[in-house]
Q: What sequence folds into this?
């Protein structure tokens, strides 16, 4: 019996990754009775990553007291996974949606809440911590997070700074003597899907601060402050951190690289690693992935591209079920076929309101086509013929075929 893996991203605002898997499994069993199916909740490092990994790995979401970007008490959640692993979404504590537009003040904002979540994870025994960058209301270079973990940020008079965005220009030294001793025994990874450096036109301040409420004069102050901070980091840690990815999440990337010795990985690649995707592919016959819209960004660190690349390496066919396809968009390498759920004229409101129905119909079309291909393949007299074929837009490398039912 064939084995199908379902590894789709969520369709934002309509279907979760788990819901798409349920609809796919129902269609698969109708056309391939007795088939084996496995759902692998997926994400690319953005919102929902921690919960998806908790579901995929048999982990759990835990709650902890923390502070938001403006220092207000909140309760935030993150994922604890088996084997001492934790996944923390930076946005859960320092997220932009937690701060109303009228309240946004990037010079007053801090990542301290993220450090509080890391500390809580260490208290619960985590020794492999992944921090998903993105969606932050901050531009403090990670100073607030590191201060919460015991590092002291000192001004010209050796006074301790709070580690907010406005302190970037004031910091003169970093005292590491009181840092949490467990940090040196913990492996840190940051999920980072942008390659912005710390400084310059594409850096943290100029690229991201305007999105967080900074006007032109504020951006200039933050850039000068970040230049000062970069010099302090290089003096303290013996190397420069104005590298690709360091500018992510208002410079949080640089802070994690410098203070925590973190390793940076694209979000979807880290998710695939954590769920052991390559191992799961070993006896898979077909993988179905997908996302809400296949567009020009799909190939750049999104779930569909990451899943398809892993499938191509393993020689497993991969198809994508997507909400819609941007005109002219090309499927990422490794995608054998694309099945859009909005195959005919309809309004966006209609598509969103009927997302479940449209997805179920598309899943039915997909597995109906696969079953027909299996029957045709079973009748082919030549022993070299593939018993199942999914129509492909381009010639694809040899892949394992699904046996006929």
A:
């Amino acid at each position: 019996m064939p084995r199908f893996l379902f590894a789709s991203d969520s369709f934002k605002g309509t279907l979760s990754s788990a819901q798409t898997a349920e609809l796919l499994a129902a269609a698969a069993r109708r056309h391939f009775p007795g088939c084996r199916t496995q759902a692998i909740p997926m994400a690319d490092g953005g919102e929902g990553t921690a919960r998806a990994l908790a579901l995929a790995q048999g982990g759990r979401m835990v709650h902890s007291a923390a502070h938001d970007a403006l220092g207000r008490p909140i309760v935030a959640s993150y994922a604890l996974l088996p084997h001492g692993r934790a996944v923390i979404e930076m946005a859960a504590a320092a997220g932009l949606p937690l701060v109303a537009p009228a309240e946004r003040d990037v010079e007053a904002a801090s990542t301290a809440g993220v450090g509080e979540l890391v500390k809580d994870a260490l208290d619960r025994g985590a020794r492999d911590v992944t921090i998903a960058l993105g969606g932050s209301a901050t531009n403090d270079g990670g100073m607030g997070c590191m201060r919460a973990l015991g590092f002291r940020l000192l001004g010209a008079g050796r006074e301790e700074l709070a580690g907010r965005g406005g302190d970037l220009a004031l910091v003169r030294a970093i005292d590491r003597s009181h840092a949490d001793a467990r940090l040196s025994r913990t492996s840190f990874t940051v999920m980072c899907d942008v390659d912005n450096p710390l400084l310059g036109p594409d850096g943290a301040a100029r690229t991201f601060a305007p999105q967080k409420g900074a006007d032109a004069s504020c951006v200039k102050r933050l850039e000068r402050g970040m230049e000062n901070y970069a010099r302090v980091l290089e003096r303290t840690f013996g190397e420069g951190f104005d590298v690709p990815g360091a500018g992510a999440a208002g410079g949080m990337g640089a802070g994690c690289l410098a203070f925590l010795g973190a390793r940076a990985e694209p979000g979807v690649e880290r998710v695939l690693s954590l769920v052991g995707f390559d191992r799961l592919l070993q006896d898979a016959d077909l993988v179905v992935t997908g996302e809400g819209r296949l567009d020009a960004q799909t190939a750049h660190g999104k779930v569909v591209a990451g899943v398809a690349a892993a499938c191509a390496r393993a020689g497993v066919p991969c198809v994508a079920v997507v909400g819609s396809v941007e005109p002219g968009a090309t499927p990422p390498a490794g995608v054998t076929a694309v099945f859009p759920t909005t195959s005919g004229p309809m309004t966006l409101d209609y598509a969103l309101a009927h997302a479940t129905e449209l997805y179920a119909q598309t899943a039915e079309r997909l597995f109906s086509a696969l079953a027909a291909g299996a029957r045709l393949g079973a009748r082919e007299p030549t022993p070299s013929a593939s018993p199942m074929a999914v129509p492909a837009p381009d010639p694809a490398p040899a892949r394992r075929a699904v046996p006929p039912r």
In short: The chain is about 35% helix and 15% strand.
